Amino acid sequence: MTPYRPEFSAALEMFARISDAMAAQNLSRPILVGGAAVEIYSLSNINTGDFDIVTGSQTCFEGILVEHGFVRPSGPGMATRGWIHPDLKLGFEVVSSTLLDGQAERERVRPIRIGDSGIIEVIATEDIIADRMGQYASGTARDMLDQARTLFALSEGLDLDYMERRIRYETAGDYGVEDLQP
């Protein structure tokens, strides 16, 4: 039984099939970042409304989305760059072509098998925590400190030296691992 809420599990399965389709075309698998990565690592203790994706092959990725039934919302009040599947309650959006502007170490990306659906790649826990701390430090997303602290508390085996460097970079030196303690 999956530890995730049903709609998130369904979206993960869809993302795994799309990731496998990209790999079948000899393209790098897209990387899940943002709130969906937080939901994975928090086992749905923190929920997301969309899947933020990093891929250097956006055109191909979006073509595969269409093949899997996704549509781009249009019309009044639909100012989104993302894609929606009529059966899922979560949108998918390409947010970048490079992982954290090239600052994250690609070899830390975590492959995760999603049942029989396929394999997805997810940003490293240390990098998503650093990303959340960076958003918190910017002053535009005060709730991100709680997300970072929750992920830190739930995670085991973190590379604290790497995470310290990443947090310091993302926060322009203002915060570090010690700020993850409540």
Q: Care to describe what's here?
A:
With 182 residues, the protein is α/β, with parallel strands linked by helices. It is built from six helices and six strands; from the N terminus they run αβαβαββββααα. It has helices at 6-24, 34-41, 58-67, 125-137, 144-154, 160-170; strands at residues 31-33, 50-54, 83-84, 91-96, 110-114, 118-122. Strand 5 and strand 6 (118-122) form a beta hairpin. The radius of gyration is 16 Å and the shape is globular.
CATH level-3 fold name of the largest domain: Beta Polymerase, domain 2
Using the alpha-carbon principal axes, give the shape: globular
In percent, how much strand structure appears in the residues?
5-15%
Q: What percentage of residues falls in helices of 4 or more residues? A: 25-40%
CATH class (first level) name of the largest domain: Alpha Beta
Count of separate DSSP helical elements: 6
Low-confidence stretches: none
Structural class: alpha/beta
Domain count: the total is 2
The first-to-last residue Cα distance is 32 Å
Series of secondary-structure elements, N-terminal to C-terminal: HEHEHEEEEHHH
Task: List how many beta strands DSSP finds.
Answer: 6
Sketch the major β-sheet: 6 strands, mixed
Mean of all residue-level pLDDT scores: 92
Radius of gyration from the alpha-carbon trace, in angstroms: 16 Å
CATH architecture of the largest domain: 2-Layer Sandwich
Largest sheet: spatial strand order:
3-4-2-1-6-5
